[in-house]
Amino acid sequence: MRMDNKAYLVQMKSNGVHSRTRTLNAKGLPGNDIHYMSVNGSLCTTKTKSRRQRWEVKPSEMSKNTLNPIRAIVDGMKLVPNPEKPMISLSIGDPTVFGNLPTDATVLQAMKDAIDSHKYNGYAPSVGYLKSRQAVANFYSCPEAPLEAEDVVLTSGCSQAIELAINVLCNPGDNILVPRPGFSLYKTLAVSMGIEVKLYNLLPEKSWEIDLQHMESLIDERTSCLIVTNPSNPCGSVFSKDHLQKILKVASKLCVPILADEIYSDMVFPGCNSSSLASLSSNVPILSCGGLAKRWLVPGWRLGWILIHDRNNIFGSEIRQGLVKLTQRILGACTIVQGALESILNNTPQSFYSDTISFLKSNSEICFKELCSVPGLNPVMPSGAMYLMVGIEMDHYPDFKNDVDFTERLVTEQSVFCLPASAFEYPNFFRIVVTVPEELMLEACARIREFCQHYYRPPSCDGNDLDQ
């Protein structure tokens, strides 16, 4: 078609009202100008779009706002071990690092059977296979908090479960309540999405119970989620039934849903009872996040879940539909592990769980006993999970600026790496992972003692440190 001595390609819409045209150049190839023509033949030319003249590729605001506090601190440390002493890393929350805590043979066999069946090589529904979701529902259902398959969303590890839960509950400009000290991922995810993080205090003198008054004071009309971690990373604490009920009372009073991070569910030392939040809740809706990683000692398998507890239909259908839509972004968890899931949950012997917990308790007791007698250190005995927090009386260690400096020098001189608790928003503590073999735990504690004895400065009679 030719008009005004120009050639045009015309694409008519089915209603015939407007058409989209593009100019042709001298060779009959499409040019860059876009025009619109009405049916009466008049021509309306839109603003010509200019081409970019140079490369200008920039990272997104979300990527720039994504920061893991642990990486930010550790990457800035000068971690050069003493070449005369083999490195003992007590910093990584991965129970498989030293090879002394393998998963059970039945767990491995379930994976082998899933592979050999050739049934799980394709796509699964984004929320997970129905059979696998039902297996999780059956495993965690109880009369106080019943579950069906429709209440379970399978995810790529517990970390993704936490991400989906935050995403479905929060909008940019909202705020969430996060424990201090607490798992750094909560802040990493929230800040990257434009969500404010408010930190509520845990109390070391009360075995890391929540400061309930402080937590309640932080809640306002933009608070969209309260995160409760039980058992705790990094503290290894386990809340009593009474304390959990008090948490629920605050959430109920101020109408705040709870994201319950229960990845360490049932990793509780003998003599200490642990209840899920949902089993105690009468009206607070809860998204409980868990997975295979820690209890089954397979963090690399990346299989987690969200359990939707909403007996009063406060979440309604929209939260569930929102979770489904969010799962469609990566099309779900690994299908092979999903195929093995029912067998893993139903066939893992109780002795495997008991042996793991017995080892963790024994190692925790060794670490606690050894460090209790070290001047200037205040370990807090855990009740579960895989961690122990140790306070540093920094006034008695004037050679060090803070916990980061302290732990950095511990690596340099003793080749023992403990994670400074500044990574968990809690300075002047460090975290120890208690999954190392017993002989290494004893050796690490001996080196920490030697290090502390060298730098410790006792108080003088007049209240000032000696050697100042």
From TrEMBL:
Quaternary context: Homodimer.
GO molecular function: L-tyrosine-2-oxoglutarate transaminase activity; pyridoxal phosphate binding
Enzyme Commission designation: 2.6.1.5
Catalyzed reactions per annotation: L-tyrosine + 2-oxoglutarate = 3-(4-hydroxyphenyl)pyruvate + L-glutamate
Keywords: Aminotransferase, Phenylalanine catabolism, Pyridoxal phosphate, Transferase, Tyrosine catabolism
Family: Belongs to the class-I pyridoxal-phosphate-dependent aminotransferase family.
GO biological process: L-phenylalanine catabolic process; L-tyrosine catabolic process
Protein name (record): Tyrosine aminotransferase
Residues bearing the modification N6-(pyridoxal phosphate)lysine: K294
Function: Transaminase involved in tyrosine breakdown. Converts tyrosine to p-hydroxyphenylpyruvate.
PANTHER family listed in its UniProt record: TYROSINE AMINOTRANSFERASE
Originating species: Cyprinodon variegatus (Sheepshead minnow)
Residue ranges occupied by any Aminotransferase class I/classII large domain in the UniProt entry: 86-448
SUPFAM superfamilies: PLP-dependent transferases (SSF53383)
Required co-factors: pyridoxal 5'-phosphate
Pathway: Amino-acid degradation; L-phenylalanine degradation; acetoacetate and fumarate from L-phenylalanine: step 2/6
Lineage: Eukaryota, Metazoa, Chordata, Craniata, Vertebrata
